[in-house]
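hey team, just a heads up i'm posting the complex here instead of the shared drive bc the drive is being weird again. everything in one block, sequence lines first with there labels, then the predicted structure for the whole assembly after. its three chains so it's a bit long, scroll down
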Amino acid sequence: MINKKLPQIWYGGDYNPEQWDHPAIWEEDIRYFKEAGINVATLNVFSWALNQPDEETYDFSRLEMHMNRLYDHGIYTCLATSTAAHPAWMARKYPDVLRVDFQGRQRRFGGRHNSCPNSPTYRHYAGKMAGALGSHFKDHPGLLMWHVSNEYGGYCYCDNCAAGFRKWLKQSYHSIDRLNKLWNTRFWGHTFYSWEEIVVPNALSEEGEGNVSVFQGISLDYRRFQSDSLLECYQLEHTVLKTFTPDLQITTNLMGTYSELDYFKWGKAMDVVSWDSYPALDTPVSLTAMTHDLMRGLKDGKPFMLMEQTPSQQNWQSYNALKRPGVMRLWSYQALAHGADTVLFFQLRRSIGACEKFHGAVIEHAGHNETRVFRETEQVGRELQQLEDKLIGARITSRVAIVYDWENRWALDLSSGPTVSLDYVKEVHSYYRAFYRLNIPVDFISVEADLTGYDLVVAPVLYMVKTGHAKRIERFVENGGTFVSTFFSGIVNEHDLVTLGGYPGELRSLFGIWVEETDALDPAQFNHIVMSKQWGKLSGHYQCNLLFDLIHSEGAEVLATYGSDFYAGSPVVTRNTFGKGSAIYVGSSGDQAFTDGLIETVCNERGIVSLLPTPDGVEVTERTKAGESFLFVLNHRSEQVALTLIDQYNNLLTNEELAGEVTLEPHGVLLLKACL
Amino acid sequence: MINKKLPQIWYGGDYNPEQWDHPAIWEEDIRYFKEAGINVATLNVFSWALNQPDEETYDFSRLEMHMNRLYDHGIYTCLATSTAAHPAWMARKYPDVLRVDFQGRQRRFGGRHNSCPNSPTYRHYAGKMAGALGSHFKDHPGLLMWHVSNEYGGYCYCDNCAAGFRKWLKQSYHSIDRLNKLWNTRFWGHTFYSWEEIVVPNALSEEGEGNVSVFQGISLDYRRFQSDSLLECYQLEHTVLKTFTPDLQITTNLMGTYSELDYFKWGKAMDVVSWDSYPALDTPVSLTAMTHDLMRGLKDGKPFMLMEQTPSQQNWQSYNALKRPGVMRLWSYQALAHGADTVLFFQLRRSIGACEKFHGAVIEHAGHNETRVFRETEQVGRELQQLEDKLIGARITSRVAIVYDWENRWALDLSSGPTVSLDYVKEVHSYYRAFYRLNIPVDFISVEADLTGYDLVVAPVLYMVKTGHAKRIERFVENGGTFVSTFFSGIVNEHDLVTLGGYPGELRSLFGIWVEETDALDPAQFNHIVMSKQWGKLSGHYQCNLLFDLIHSEGAEVLATYGSDFYAGSPVVTRNTFGKGSAIYVGSSGDQAFTDGLIETVCNERGIVSLLPTPDGVEVTERTKAGESFLFVLNHRSEQVALTLIDQYNNLLTNEELAGEVTLEPHGVLLLKACL
Amino acid sequence: MINKKLPQIWYGGDYNPEQWDHPAIWEEDIRYFKEAGINVATLNVFSWALNQPDEETYDFSRLEMHMNRLYDHGIYTCLATSTAAHPAWMARKYPDVLRVDFQGRQRRFGGRHNSCPNSPTYRHYAGKMAGALGSHFKDHPGLLMWHVSNEYGGYCYCDNCAAGFRKWLKQSYHSIDRLNKLWNTRFWGHTFYSWEEIVVPNALSEEGEGNVSVFQGISLDYRRFQSDSLLECYQLEHTVLKTFTPDLQITTNLMGTYSELDYFKWGKAMDVVSWDSYPALDTPVSLTAMTHDLMRGLKDGKPFMLMEQTPSQQNWQSYNALKRPGVMRLWSYQALAHGADTVLFFQLRRSIGACEKFHGAVIEHAGHNETRVFRETEQVGRELQQLEDKLIGARITSRVAIVYDWENRWALDLSSGPTVSLDYVKEVHSYYRAFYRLNIPVDFISVEADLTGYDLVVAPVLYMVKTGHAKRIERFVENGGTFVSTFFSGIVNEHDLVTLGGYPGELRSLFGIWVEETDALDPAQFNHIVMSKQWGKLSGHYQCNLLFDLIHSEGAEVLATYGSDFYAGSPVVTRNTFGKGSAIYVGSSGDQAFTDGLIETVCNERGIVSLLPTPDGVEVTERTKAGESFLFVLNHRSEQVALTLIDQYNNLLTNEELAGEVTLEPHGVLLLKACL
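-- predicted structure starts here --
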């Protein structure tokens, strides 16, 4: 995504100069931005009310003044469309912009991300605002790209949404009979005779707090519908903006594993993926890495934008620890290491009032550059400038893919039984971590992805198998691929209807097993995975919990059996040869040692090797571009670590030549280019 | 309750063939039902919307086809009236059928058990549906009995209920002055001058979540009113059905210790009690036993129906463990052992969609009979057929009764102070367990029951003493009975107004004590019950907690005193001679060892003996009929146990002769008929 | 506050004879009151509905009869205005009296404290009721004082409140531009163009449960507005009553550290402060002491009234333990010891129904005087009579003040970040305890208070520094005062807008430090305060947690540094010389040992000495009047303790002469007058 205007790593972030009506402060801002190597500012994220005082009036003079001022100092603008919070006057005059919440209550003006996605008023004025901005700024030389709205999310349950839902259902099902069948409405007397009888599923009808539903079909479709509705809002602005600036990229900032939107669908609609990364002090660094990889996967590995991260502190967690010295820098490089081409902050200057006043910023309330945070920002800025355009567009190559599916997660969360403790993201992360500790690159792919080109595909808890997916997996394995999945897979189709004939349904012949029953116990109760014999790194036994598939082999090799309970001795891990490849099934939630051992064994068998073996806590990734390789070595530990390089490298951050044994500082980073 | 059509133990359960429009599946169903010895299917539980597409049309052709098909294969139908979930079209056209919830929000269509019991529309169409079914099926030879609605429960707070409540109050209190007096409305300025001023007690007026109320009189009466309102719905259908089939039994399925309905009142209105038993993996088996006994008590010991149990797994618990091998059989016999004449399942074939798709069934998603669950079902079916009509109508004889009162529980839950941790069911269970471990049969009786014929009556936490109850208890004791009650008894009358003059109020002379105060501590804090001297099995000291009555003896013998705190040395357990009998008062919540010792001691004194002494975990009950005795011996342990029979028996399940030392398999069952 | 009618310690409490229509009971009441030495009864707290059956009718005959009867027996009446719970007829006819709750739901009739403070109906009829009572009873000889409403509290969110809020805002901000600026509304697109666009902040707009807000400015002002609205209701009645009885004192009963009302503002409007003290079994006695001192501070040290305490038990806690023998007496003297001139109970006779029937009373349900509770009441009554008017009006003298500010607490609670665990009251209590254990008297003062006359002022977590406050503190220190504050101080102004330029903002030069950042960790994680050298009682190291200010000294002496983490070695406790005084800053939440050591050290340096050194658990306070000193010695322990008196005293409770070593009984009390 080399951008001709600014062909280097973009560095900067959200900037809200309208919160200060002081030219002196604006001047200071510019001065510090330049000191810090900042070259991009995101403007106008929340200024709808400010720039549009009524239905007819648009006043961009203030915004233009700031864009000019920035551009005059070499700083480009990522221009937001400001539609993530409607004006108070609009809420007052046109209450249809206000959401009705999960409890069925119409909200009043307040907060942000507050507009009903199916409000005619909202869509009308959001489109108009995009057009007004496009028209006004299309030729501004400082305009670098568009940032539509902000962190789309949340559902609405108003009458406009109900009408929209019925329309969406008609388009999806065509006839009410088909809907009745695919929602299985003869259960609990839910037979519908007209579309008008269908109401939105919330706390007043089918659902309870925490993704509890008594009618999964309805609830699943409502999530699809709301995700689509919000996406339509994005697309509406996207389309308008394209008419003015066909060559500028357009994005909106996503939120990683945020559950409510089907980001694979969103990724297709965006020119470039961008996202906001807010790990807490106790977030595993592997989970941050995984989320970067997931975001990269939304557009098939295309580099993405780190749109927001805090330079220091958040405000909305329970305990908002400071990022320790060096950690902001480390995590900035971690983003680049996983495919980001930008390092952007929320926020450049800290607000003085309202709920984000205790969120960190490049320029803190002290108002000057003599702060730890500023110094660290400055260092990163300096380093990124040195890198010029070297990394821009560089890709990550992986022989391993993990399947991730938002709809699968929704269906798992919504289903009643067998356990309330199944956490899809946690199960996925458990497998991801096994690759992460080996420094083996992983792609995240959707259930629609082409599997060709991968050696190993892992699909944890593939509960929902959509039409055609099983066949694609079978072809992949037949052609020599290795496929790994887990307990509670192959259960339902995309309508959350069970595939009859025996679990894991459409995956049954692939795995060569039949799962007769699935036991569920309090996660504090454990069984054991007892290896039938040593297999690579796996031997002896491991703990497992959560769910316990009772498996019959129908041809699969039994790699391990349960250690206790009435199914002691029955299979828990199996491997089935299928065509030229094999399919491994893990019938319970193993402990990390098991999953690590399993993945290492499979990788060894497939010849999938580490980029560089490292001590625990040291992460390695590689980006390549035009035959050049960039190796990121990230020390997540608070101690120095030593490691041994295999080749000879140039550390791009210091221009040192490195080879053999090298030492990383606490939270230190190497960015190594192989010496040719 | 020998039924001439099917004079044997009914075996089968809920069957929803309308969920599959596949004749092939229906044929498979019949084949497997016959293999499993199934002779009864409950049809039409949730098909209102399917069978009545609009106000005027009733189409029972599908239902009749299934009844015919079943009957042709010797399977009878327990026919449900389908009124537990109104159709969506009805909710749309007649919103008065929708409940207003505790938060004051009118619900929309969704879920089940969703109709306002005071909705004119609901009552009109529910009655019409019962009539239509009665008229259509009254002469069907396969029609075995009626199953009205399903698991009645939940309260409504709509305007129709408010109007109904006022009417109910007028009928109960006649004058507003009397209501003011009995609700004590001069407290907190609640004086009412007209019935219209009274509003329903919910989160918008007098109550909070979790049975919190600031005005107990109103809240208590609202529970009575709602229980009565739902009962009127039952009775409405019952009456209609009787006009068509005066000789068929009518029931609705209850839910054990479910708190919201006064089941003793319901029991009177039903021809036979039926209930749904869903213990979790960690439910004490003694609690299941107790609940069976409670349900049997609703109709004075008449045999009841086990209407639902799962063959394997539930879906709505947090962790839905499989029933371990043998446990479904064991618990089926446990139901029979406590007076059930049926063994019925929810469900015969598992749904493929919506919220019960992960609830176990006789025919699982695999769709065939090669499953553990099916094999166990088959075994039980075979055994029950062998039993023919031997057990049908057999009764349980008990010299012990435990008093249970739903209104007492409501009043305890609603009252503010002295502790939030008092759990009526838990206190009752603690006393029940003491009999259970001795294999001493227990009847559950209401506060209206005749006590004649019992030797020992236990009434844990008899907080509310209704008019006349104290006198009946006194007569019972005067005539030689032994009465046991506990702390916080005798406090209020049926209006939750305190009986003045000293606790335990109307029971004070019976117990020969005065309770001056009641201390309440965090249940993690303990005092001790220190025995004054050895008494039977009781000596030394025991832990107690929760509440601590500060007792003065007014003639009672002090059996034990407190061990610590400022009331150390003051009475905690007393016994008063009253006429020919005695009354024992336990002033705190003793640990199980204490309660076990107390009950064993009292039983020994009264010559109430065990049916058969057994090791822990082995339960024994006896049913008798026409001079014949049937002894159930149930091994709830996962190990073999040995025990010694006193007489010589025939095991009806194996036709073996047994005497002396016998061995029970893990989860094994003996059904012993004495050899005469 | 010597009252000519009854110049002694008032003893009695809430009395609701209207709950019994039995002259015999009323006669018993009087008899027992006299036995117990009761001389004041609070009547009419909740009888609005009883005394006013409709818009026009007022019937005080019943009330007058009770006042007469009491007065005839020498008992005076504290007459309540009964406006804390509107009549049901009013709620039905004029729904505007009903509050709209935080969820936006209009409530229905129920509970108490249920009127919207901005309801025209409520204000009209509350004023009329005050007038009717004033007119009727102004000349009654038994009328001792007025008790307006009861425990004002709770907020309303109705349309009348919304309109009132806008009016209040106009008066506060004059222009919408100024409001926009001071609410920082350019954040998140909140720019308002008209007052009508502003909606109340609740769960439908800006807030969530638990003082969560996304817009602090709005939420903070709404708390001010609601506190003011309720205060206007008080003032309305106050003004009316004054027209009838200009010489009688008027009060309303407050609730200690209750968060929703700005009691310093309320205190000014009341003739005398009264409050209801309900410690639980596990409430630290120092917290009760602190709350008494806080209530005394509301009117600059003027004696206050203990309006309610329970003689034995409460009903609304989770576990309502009895007050142990002697504890009611002990806590009664504790109230006097801290400046109360009355000892009043809720309640004199226990209700028989509704939610306070399990709340203790002087006359219990037993209905006679042969109870522990009555005997203890009697003893206290006898003792108080002996004291005659000796204590009345006696004051407490203190050289130490602690700053307490309701608005500061609101702002802390509302702010998002840096930690959810900051508890203002807990932090204040931690400092208070350090004085308490030394028996050093403390005044509580508002942020507006004159600091002259104090040697030491402590302001824990002075997050919000209002206009002029910093200057007043600086003058205080310049003139020789010692000022102590803590972490997270000096952050915002009264609009919750951050003071730019570096924390602690306006206090920065006073403290001679700059706080660059504040780290927040889970409170289970600890750092250490490492003393730079021994300082008085402080040496070695202490634990600290919660928040960690990263401090740069700008001239202050570094007394202690952090022991670990990346800020190990940087300052955590500093002292700055400023003029003739010094300012101490504590940058984290130290453990109690640290705070105790700090306060003892500072007191030693300032020559602030203990009234009397005592063992732990023995509290000493002093009240003085006309040159006479009354020393209260309170043994909060359950064991006897010995202590040594310095002077010779007369124990007013026993008329014994005491000197040298004396022994206090468990929960014993000495009230010592120095022998001159």
